[in-house]
């Protein structure tokens, strides 16, 4: 049995609920497809998030890594194609904001996801769940996490599937949000991530 490190994030900014937290708590310890899942909840904190997931790479020694994050306003499940070496934008949960700051000083400009993102999109759409590849993970904590993991794996010469998937808001979040955002049921979000894990070789 292979091991999957599955990460999600705590709530952040104006979003009091992060549906990825629920998904990770629900799937932690479960066996899906070829994988035993180790769930990890990440803080939204430039200073500690990367170290936390890199620590987990060392302790869990996963055969694959899927990180999940909320992209409020998106209408589909969106596997990310690329992470870029840039942090720029809103405050994290510690009140720190960055501008034009590299994730890794002197690091590569970007890293492509090593997850089978096209297969994920095909599997989801065939099952009736809207999905599309996203060409930007932004410049906030999600991009930061995806970049950090791919940079670390690259440095270690570890060729395991790893990458990031953004999900839309849940109904619960939409109801608790001041913004008018598209939402999915928790069950559909969960089923989509299960389908993605089942599609992983
Ligand atoms: N989404 C944010 C950070 C945490 C999360 O769930 C992002 O897209 O960067």
From TrEMBL:
EC number assigned by the record: 3.4.19.3
Enzyme class of the recorded protein, top EC level: hydrolase
Keyword Thylakoid attributed: no
Pfam families on file: Peptidase_C15 (PF01470)
GO CC field: cytosol
Record GO biological process: proteolysis
Reactions the enzyme catalyzes: Release of an N-terminal pyroglutamyl group from a polypeptide, the second amino acid generally not being Pro
Places the protein is found: Cytoplasm
Major localization class: cytoplasm
Cited function: Removes 5-oxoproline from various penultimate amino acid residues except L-proline.
Family indicated by similarity: Belongs to the peptidase C15 family.
Name of the protein described by the UniProt record: Pyroglutamyl-peptidase I
Organism in which the protein naturally occurs: Bacillus canaveralius
